[in-house]
Design brief:
411 residues; Peptidoglycan synthesis regulatory factor (PBP3), Domain 2; 3 domains
Length: 411
């Protein structure tokens, strides 16, 4: 019916009410305190530690990716300069174009004079130089290359400004209410180029859950590619700006950013025990502190998170159809159900109840809601999954009834 995804947690000892007499006894006989530590620990039950994290950054958020649930936040709606984590939206638009078949990884992308002139982090693409889109994506995700970002934006939309317009449209569609982009790479320090930790988490979640192929790029630590220009060929080594890849074993991505106005930022993704977390840190005071803050947040998240998953694969009995051309209709779950608990509840206590009618009146349409699977924890509903009709059934007419009658007598 379902599988439970548990997480390793940190424990500490406490004295429960049932042990108070034992504790008092020990105070009168201090010699007993020299008993082996193992015996002492055996006497006392354990308690989960869940103190909130302490970080240096002024703005941050931690969410679970599959549910979008917020685990921790600090000034998460505060508008701040994002620097290169702007490129998360650039990458999202690129992967959406790839999925729609409008572009391909083998497409040749030519660098314009304008794209080549970008400063900041770059891979020194020459004007007129062509690289396939796959290589350009590596330059963007691994080396945070501004020149590659602008070249790809121009390839997709014709100009950087047209691409930025699409970025802002997509941000609005995703509900990123504290975001406005002025460029596609985050090089600008304009006051009109801003986002928030919460909005960065939203676009990061959209990218990694809808387009997991991004991990093939952002997990590259180092890789060479070849410049091919009129002046000849040369090798350039891409080195990942996300040092968490070597510092935190569960890291899967995603993007760093830094500028004088933005200070030091990161959208860090990790997977541990099948739980995907996103930690966004903005405005950290030092380069190393953003990574430390991200690790603190991720460790906190994994210490308090239990994820319940019901994949809803078991069949549901057909529903009876009244006055239809068919006597019954199949139904199925719209999808799986996930619930993240951060309060220490026992997920064994979750109850699932199907809410379906005994019969339905024709006509019914494929994809319409027939009922719900509702989930309860400690008597409170924690979510539901729609149950949909798997096919359409038209209302029966005179000829259909006659056919049924004739079929009955011919049996």
């Amino acid at each position: 019916m379902y599988r439970k995804i548990w997480n390793v947690v940190i424990f500490m000892k406490r004295i429960s009410p049932s042990r108070v007499k034992t504790a008092r006894f020990l105070t009168f006989f201090p010699g007993l305190l020299s008993l082996p530590l193992a015996v002492f620990l055996f006497l006392f039950p354990v308690m989960k530690v869940s103190a909130e994290p302490v970080i240096t950054a002024p703005s941050a958020i931690l969410i679970e990716a599959s549910t979008g649930q917020v685990i921790y936040e600090l000034n998460a709606a505060e508008r701040r300069c994002p620097a290169s984590i702007t490129k998360i939206m650039t990458l999202l638009l690129v992967f959406e174009q790839l999925d729609e078949g409008k572009i391909a990884l083998t497409d040749s992308v030519t660098t314009s004079e304008y794209a080549s002139s970008m400063g900041g982090s770059q891979v020194y693409l020459a004007a007129g130089e062509s690289q396939d889109l796959d290589t350009m994506l590596k330059c963007i995700t691994v080396a945070s290359a501004n020149d590659a970002s602008v070249a790809v934006a121009e390839y997709i939309a014709g100009s950087e400004q047209a691409f930025v317009d699409r970025m802002n449209e997509r941000a609005s569609e995703l509900g990123m209410t504290d975001t406005h982009f002025e460029d596609c790479c985050g090089l600008t320090e304009s006051d009109d180029h801003y986002t928030s930790a919460r909005d960065v988490a939203i676009m990061s979640r959209e990218l990694i859950t809808k387009h997991p192929g991004i991990f093939d790029y952002c997990q590259i630590w180092m890789e060479d590619f070849t410049h091919e220009t009129r002046q000849g060929t040369s090798t350039f080594t891409l080195s990942n700006t996300n040092k968490l890849l070597k510092q935190y074993e569960w890291t899967t991505g995603l993007k760093t950013g830094s500028m004088s106005k933005a200070k030091y930022c990161i959208s860090a993704t990790a997977r541990r025990n099948d739980i995907d977390l996103i930690a966004v840190v903005m405005g950290a005071p030092e380069p190393k502190s953003r990574f430390q803050d991200a690790m603190v947040l991720l460790n906190y998240g994994y210490s308090v998170s239990n994820l319940y998953l019901d994949d809803n694969q078991e069949p549901i009995p057909d529903l009876k159809v009244e006055r239809g051309v068919e006597d019954c209709v199949a139904v199925d779950y719209e999808g799986e159900f996930r619930f993240l608990d951060i309060s220490g509840n026992s997920l064994e206590q979750i109850e699932k109840k199907l809410e379906l009618p005994q019969s339905v009146q024709a006509p019914v349409s494929e994809g319409e809601v027939a009922g719900y699977a509702r989930y309860y924890l400690n008597g409170t509903e924690i979510g539901n999954v729609p149950i949909l009709f798997s096919k359409s059934v038209e209302k029966a007419g005179y000829a259909d009834y006659l056919k049924k009658i004739l079929g009955y007598f011919l049996l």
